[in-house]
Amino acid sequence: QVQLVESGGGSVQAGGSLRLSCATSGDSYNSACMGWFRQAPGKEREGVAHIDSDGSTSYANSVKGRFTISKDNVKNILYLQMNSMNPEDTAMYYCAADRPSTWSAVAGRYRCTRGYRYWGQGTQVTVSS
User: Which distant-in-sequence residues (6+ apart) come within 8 Å of 19 by Cβ?
Assistant: First the structure.
């Protein structure tokens, strides 16, 4: 129903930048909620950044001020701009997608839950000192 393909990973020096891309296909409503995750060897998967169906964003404290999540709704591409990178950012990065599924009386709409049904294959990011 939804397919996700990440690209843009690679190796950079500390202080450098990378931009990850996630191309989406399928029902756009089912990818209205999107996010980036990462997992380093021996560590738990970590939520990095999320973008809600209304365009609102949130970030892990470890990347605030350095990473920016955005989406091109015409081309259906999710981006993660990563600046001022450090070796702790080394991980496999995954994009994920789902539809809004929990009702918010405050917002007057369904919102994203950050529980995702669709996942990409991942792209490796390595940051050296």
Answer: 8, 79, 80, 81, 82
Q: Whats the size of the chain, residue-wise?
A: 129
* CA dihedral sign of residues 109, 102, 120, 34: positive
Closest to 97 in 3D by CA, of 18, 24, 8: 24
38-84: pLDDT as tens digits:
999 999 999 999 999 889 999 999 999 999 999 998 999 999 999 99
CB 97 within 8 A of CB 108: no
CA angle 100, 108, 52 (to 5 degrees): 35
